[in-house]
Amino acid sequence: ATSAIEFSHKRAVTDICWLPARHEVTAACKLRLDESGAPWQAWQCATMAADGYILFWDLRSARKATAASAPRSTERRRDPTDKEAAEAAEQAAKRDEILWVPVCRMGLSKLDGSGELSCNFLQLSGIAAGSKLFCATEEGEFCVAELAHVQPAGAPPLPDDANEMSGVKAVFQGHYGPCTALMRSPFQKDVHLTVGDWSFNVWKDGVASPVFTSPFSAERLTAGCWSPSRAGVILVAKSDGSVDVWDLTDRSHEPSTSFNVVGGAAVTSLAMWAGPSSQLLAAGDDLGTLHVMEIPRNLRRAPSTEKKAIEAFITREVDRVAYAQRRTEEREAEAHQQQVAAGADEIAAAAAATAVVGSGAELPDGEESEDGFNPAAEAEYRELEAAFRVELGLDEPAPAADEEAAAGEAEEAPSEAGGRGAPRPVQLLVHGTNNLVGPVGASRRWAPAE
Description:
- By secondary structure, this protein is α+β, with helices and mostly antiparallel strands.
- The chain is built from 5 helices and 25 strands.
- It has a 4-stranded antiparallel β-sheet with strand order 1-4-5-8, with no helix packed on it. It has a 4-stranded antiparallel β-sheet with strand order 9-10-11-12, with no helix packed on it. It has a 4-stranded antiparallel β-sheet with strand order 13-14-15-16.
- The longest helix is centred in the last third of the chain and has 54 residues, at 306-359.
- It starts with 12 loop residues before the first strand and ends in a 13-residue tail after the last strand.
């Protein structure tokens, strides 16, 4: 069967995955468990595209329909004078056609309402795991959504608001570029791997940030996957054609080993196959070539304590993330308190300056009043202005205090040359020079005779 174009995605499909066994989505977009089905039975799948929707398809709902069941809008658009189109419609009415439409569709909108999420990859979990959907987007985000579900027979009833739980619940920024891989850990169902830009992240459900982030690589990361037999081994493909193998039980600051797959091309996809005595890695590059390699024994045989060691590692990293978040909040609170205290000190200083100015007292040196007035700075500015005006010849120079005192003593002293009653000239001192200027013209002053 082929899906009807008018009921499909508006953009290219980026991922497709089957629902867990014996799970199905109803027309009301609720997940329910079909206990009567076989343990391996899975009839429904979900498709994702960058148009912001997830469509659920049921293979059993592909029904036969004739052209007579086509929308009436198509009939109205038909030109009655077009005989060729009329004949084609009659022929279509005589033969059966397959019309496959989705069971339901679910929108993925950003939490701030700014638009839809452009998702690249999708992972589904069953009712036992909370009926959650995990997505990776083109913007490097890790998205968690929930799908309302129907309780199995004999289970306690759902709360009244359970039917309103469908939709996006959290969006976390994890990468600086598009995500190139998303995969759930085969050993811990609440742990996911995302790959993008130059690093990969390990996420745990319920934690707002990655519990582990790899150091940046020199090349862009193009794909990644978990090992199917070892809980702590992650394989990451790079744009230079090589694959890095990370063993978190051995080291976490650098890959344990690296091998080249192809030269001059980027590895774009990875897939693992585990057999009873061997394990194969399939890698596809951007030139269209498929490479199949056998995994060595040390990377497929897990120690007996590895699973517990990785669980302890994840738990320790979760505690570290919680501590870092708590310390960040405490530091932000301390910085806010310091800002509040600094603001209170500034307000108190301004109030004190206002009180001093209002009382007519002088402010201490270097302090300003509430309106920004500084008396010391104002006085210095006035002195500079007066000196500048004298230099330009706009004002007469003001006599200095010692020169005024010397001029007063000269006026009071009796004239030695003329004796008593004889007039005596008064010599003037010009401000800014040591030369004595004799009495000339109007500048001559005479002391009264005794």
